[in-house]
């Protein structure tokens, strides 16, 4: 058995590990969690070479990597605040989950898939989108502009979100972890990357609500699937009130089984499982530190309230957002501390594309034994010539034949009899014909190699690539990852020799054999369907369509789809005014409060900072608004140019309705807002917000923080906190206030008796004193929350209702686009008169039956 350690061996020592015996290969289990507990996931990490203090939770190295000091005060405090979990992870098997039986599904949804990353990140979601289409869903894939043809050729709708994946790849190669190097900060790349993120956030929102830029067919999303780096997913779902489902190829959820792939753990003297768990929260917090203000600025643009520093990194966990991981459980099983709404489904594979190799490639393959594939795909190398020289010399030293992929760095040189340079070629066709593969460790490339039983060497550059390298090494299917920064002809040649060993090939084939029973794409679709609120989404009149409107007449409420609403209102125009936006999955984000002191203090500080921002914003906001408007117009021009070129290249794509065109188009230049005008308006708005901000802080934010702090304080001594509901408006504000007051008084007074009784029963007479202490604490906190809540909750409800009434631009945009899609559906489906009459009769019958049911209930 191979046991990893914090410090990794170098050179030949990396290759000397025990692999599984060939005679037992077919029955090899997935690697136990002990294999990965102590991995730092960065081969150049050396804890002895850094100096960390108890005051500093992390150290930023020259190459941008992060060493997280588990002995720092900040990390120790964080570990105490986090919930405890299972300890002996290695003694219990991962939880069972079975996707062998597909779910029946009959609701046809508009699904937008938001993906940020390279071609390797986009390709698995194309396979997912194609599978979703088989269930009747309309699928739009929103990603970078350059992938338009790639997506459309697969038969999916495409929406461009901006961003340059080549620039992102180059940035990540220079800064393999979250924190940039000093050189990067000095060069101004950070500002450009933040602007790119802002552009992609806006593009992701547009992809949810705007028509197809090429065909102008209306589209408003009913559900969102996204990879986490797209960042906009939860926020778009909140604005629309629809389900969101995250899918990713890299561990993004806290677990005790292995650390976050971007974290190097240092000074872990105790429980490595706890250190692993904490590493995810540290990385999430640092990510939000770098991009939180960008995300909050964008949230303001779609009229959502800002999210605070504590809640931002943990939104997915707080909201219990369903998560599907797209890797094989045969390689990395699901950790047993992951909850039921997280699935591990298998790798996503597309059908093998048709490919006819050029004659020179066919001749090279037939001229000798199977070659070794070496390629780094979409990685943009700093020094391609140096890398190529290293590869060529290593291939000669190892005595193998090689196919070298040119990739985005355009590797190429003299062609020898044992080396062939290849351009764009499907891995699905190429890898089965290789002896072994050497690559950067992207999840898609890794999956394709393992599926075909290829011994694999990962040369990781950033992100999840070291993680996959270690998982392959733990399974015996390849050597330990070889960092490009440490790569020499000698180390690469030795790693290639390791790949050519018989026992390495046996281990790789054993994993491939276990993967044969998996169907990752179908399992992911089933996972997506299982977590949808089916009954809440169904239209009451057309059950195979999702509801987006509600129609209330008296006490009767009916859920309607876009098509049903348009048919009804076209026959009864008076009903249009009664249509209300319906949210199938409302998302409410409230600030987390630990106790009344810290809660009140943080609210006071936040209000003070907001007021300061209103004053300084007279200068800073105009500059920001001017730059944002210029970039928005530049983006619109670029998008128009791209669409025009695509229409010329594909004349079959015609606008279905020119009148539908809305959003960010640059066609109507005369209607554009002046950047100077936006700057002047931003200055006026900033100072104008001073009084409302002060009023809200004093009457809502600070009292609510103290109230919620008092309400949740009993959790610190093990008592349960009663959930009295969420405040969404005036009515719910008064309702929550009443419940909190009533239960606060009842629970607070009764705790004086109940808590001593519980402690006495648990610990005998010695527990009475503890029980009295808990009872007194409950008396103060619970009754205090009730009294403060009498004013705080109604005030919060009034503030939310006022905000809902005033900030309605985004809601009006969504309603408009849904109506336009309803009109488009009616014009395309061409219902007959009898079908329209049948729908109207069903509506009247449904309203009548609901009214009768309520009447019968009231007479009982």
From TrEMBL:
Q: Which InterPro entries match?
A: EryCIII-like_C, Glycosyltransferase_28, GlycoTrans_28_N, UDP_glucos_trans
Chain residue ranges for the region called Disordered: 1-57, 644-679
Q: Name one GO biological process term.
A: carbohydrate metabolic process
MF terms (GO), sorted A to Z: sterol 3-beta-glucosyltransferase activity
Keywords, comma-separated and alphabetical: Transferase
**Taking every annotated instance into account, which residue ranges of this chain make up the domain Glycosyltransferase family 28 N-terminal?**
111-259
Composition bias of kind Low complexity appears in 656-666
Superkingdom, taxonomy of origin: Eukaryota
Q: What Pfam family does this protein match (any one)?
A: Glyco_transf_28
Q: Which residues form the Erythromycin biosynthesis protein CIII-like C-terminal domain?
A: 413-516
Q: Where are the compositionally biased (Basic and acidic residues) regions? A: 644-655
Q: What is this protein called?
A: UDP-Glycosyltransferase/glycogen phosphorylase
Q: Which organism is it from?
A: Aureobasidium pullulans (Black yeast)
Q: What is the lineage of its organism?
A: Eukaryota, Fungi, Dikarya, Ascomycota, Pezizomycotina
């Amino acid at each position: 058995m191979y046991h990893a350690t914090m410090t990794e061996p170098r050179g030949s020592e990396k290759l000397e590990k025990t692999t599984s015996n060939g005679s037992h290969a077919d029955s090899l289990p997935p690697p136990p969690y002990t294999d990965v507990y102590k991995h730092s996931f960065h081969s150049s990490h050396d804890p002895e070479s850094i100096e960390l203090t108890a005051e500093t939770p992390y150290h930023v190295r020259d190459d941008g990597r992060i060493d997280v000091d588990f002995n720092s005060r900040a990390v120790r405090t964080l570990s105490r605040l986090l919930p405890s979990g299972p300890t002996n992870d290695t003694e219990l098997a991962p939880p069972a989950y079975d996707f062998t039986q597909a779910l029946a599904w009959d609701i046809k949804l508009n699904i937008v898939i938001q993906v940020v990353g390279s071609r390797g990140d986009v390709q698995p979601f194309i396979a997912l989108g194609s599978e979703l289409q088989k269930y009747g869903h309309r699928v739009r894939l929103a990603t970078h502009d350059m992938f338009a043809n790639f997506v459309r050729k697969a038969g999916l709708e495409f929406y461009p979100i901006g961003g340059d994946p080549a620039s992102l790849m180059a940035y990540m190669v220079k800064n393999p972890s979250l924190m940039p190097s000093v050189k990067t900060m000095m060069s101004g790349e950070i500002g450009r990357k933040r602007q790119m993120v802002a552009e992609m956030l806006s593009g992701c929102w547009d992809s949810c609500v705007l028509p197809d830029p090429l065909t102008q067919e209306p589209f408003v999303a009913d559900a969102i699937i996204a990879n986490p780096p797209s960042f906009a997913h939860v926020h778009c779902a909140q604005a629309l009130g629809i389900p969101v489902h995250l899918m990713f190829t890299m561990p993004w959820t806290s677990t005790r089984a292995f650390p976050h792939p971007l974290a190097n753990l240092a000074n872990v003297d105790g429980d490595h499982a706890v250190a692993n768990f904490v590493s995810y929260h540290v990385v999430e917090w640092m990510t939000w530190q770098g991009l939180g203000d960008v995300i909050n600025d964008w949230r303001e643009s779609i009229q959502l309230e800002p999210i605070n520093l504590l809640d931002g990194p943990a939104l997915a966990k707080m909201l219990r957002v369903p998560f599907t991981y797209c890797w094989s459980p045969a390689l990395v099983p699901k950790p047993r501390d992951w909850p039921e709404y997280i699935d591990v489904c298998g790798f996503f594979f597309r059908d093998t594309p048709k490919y006819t190799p050029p004659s020179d490639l066919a001749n090279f393959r037939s001229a000798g034994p199977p070659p070794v594939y070496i390629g780094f795909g979409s990685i943009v190398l700093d020094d391609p010539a140096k890398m190529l020289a290293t590869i060529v010399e290593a291939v000669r030293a190892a005595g193998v034949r090689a196919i070298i992929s040119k990739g985005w760095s355009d590797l190429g040189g003299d062609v020898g009899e044992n080396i062939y340079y290849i351009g764009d070629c499907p891995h699905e066709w190429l890898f089965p014909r290789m002896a072994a593969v050497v690559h950067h460790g992207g999840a898609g490339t890794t999956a394709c190699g393992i599926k075909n039983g290829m011994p694999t060497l990962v040369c990781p550059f950033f992100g999840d690539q070291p993680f996959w390298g270690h998982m392959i090494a733990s399974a015996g299917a390849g050597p330990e990852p070889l960092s490009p920064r440490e790569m020499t002809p000698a180390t690469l040649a030795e790693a290639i020799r390791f790949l050519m060993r018989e026992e390495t090939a046996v281990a790789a084939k054993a994993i491939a054999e276990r993967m044969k029973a998996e169907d990752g794409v179908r399992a992911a679709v089933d996972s997506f369907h299982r977590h949808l609120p089916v009954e809440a989404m169904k239209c009451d009149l057309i059950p195979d369509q999702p509801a987006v409107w509600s129609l209330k007449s008296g006490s009767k409420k009916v859920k309607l789809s876009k098509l049903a609403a348009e048919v009804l209102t076209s026959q009864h125009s008076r009903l249009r005014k009664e249509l209300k936006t319906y949210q199938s999955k409302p998302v409410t984000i409230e600030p987390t409060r630990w106790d009344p002191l810290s809660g009140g203090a943080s609210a006071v500080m936040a209000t003070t900072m907001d007021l300061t921002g209103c004053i300084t914003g007279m200068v800073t906001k105009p500059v920001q608004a001017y730059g944002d408007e210029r970039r928005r117009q530049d983006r619109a021009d670029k998008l128009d140019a791209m669409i025009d070129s695509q229409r010329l290249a594909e004349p079959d794509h015609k606008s279905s309705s020119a009148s539908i065109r809305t959003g960010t188009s640059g066609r109507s230049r005369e209607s554009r807002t002046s950047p100077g005008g936006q700057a002047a308006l931003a200055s006026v708005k900033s100072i104008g917000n001073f009084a409302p901000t002060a009023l809200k802080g004093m009457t809502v934010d600070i009292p609510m923080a103290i109230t919620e702090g008092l309400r949740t304080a009993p959790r610190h001594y093990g008592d349960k906190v009663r959930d009295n509901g969420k405040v969404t408006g005036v009515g719910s504000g008064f309702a929550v206030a009443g419940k909190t007051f009533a239960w606060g008084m009842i629970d607070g007074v009764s705790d004086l008796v109940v808590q001593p009784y519980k402690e006495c029963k648990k610990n005998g007479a010695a527990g009475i004193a503890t029980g009295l202490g808990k009872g007194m604490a409950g008396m103060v906190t619970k009754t205090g929350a009730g009294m403060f809540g009498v004013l705080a909750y109604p005030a919060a409800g009034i503030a939310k209702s006022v905000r809902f009434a005033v900030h309605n631009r985004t809601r009006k945009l969504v309603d408009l686009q849904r109506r336009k899609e309803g009109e488009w559906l009616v014009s395309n489906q061409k219902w007959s008169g009898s079908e329209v009459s049948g729908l109207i009769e069903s509506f009247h019958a449904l309203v009548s039956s609901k009214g009768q049911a309520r009447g019968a209930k009231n007479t009982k």
